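Record type: monomer structure entry
Structure origin: computed from sequence
Chain ID: A
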Amino acid sequence: MMMGLDISRIAADLDAAAAWLLDRPEVTGSSVGVVGLCMGGGLALLAPTVSARICCASAFYTAMPWPDYAPDWTAYAGKCAQVHKAESDEAGMGARIDEVAAQIRAAGGTVEVFAYPGSQHAFFNDDRPEVYHATHASTAWERTCELLRAGCC
């Protein structure tokens, strides 16, 4: 099912979701931050490229497997991102994450890539005790909250 995602439709949905949130009377901000894990991490990194309303993304153990996943990284100018890499993902996605980070920086965006030594994919998921890492999860969440509070755009 993951591979069947229509990235252009997801892009439109991300922008529409941000518009809906910002139209809520209880929302006082002027932009939206996005957090995603695994597949959602790849979509979180996409989000600031498809919506002027989305200013930052925090992506955990990012997956970007779609053939039509080709974000316009230049849309990150003035925006920011974090990537939280599991050590076990380094062999499969490490080079791609570093490439994406370089493209975001080249576009005038800010990106921090955090590696978590000894971590497994899904280290944030406390429903999976075989991979959950409380210390790394706590650190990653603190960093994510700092990013969202900073509102980098």
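Annotation 1: The helical segments are 7-22, 39-50, 90-106, 134-150.
Annotation 2: Strands lie at 32-37, 54-60, 80-86, 110-116.
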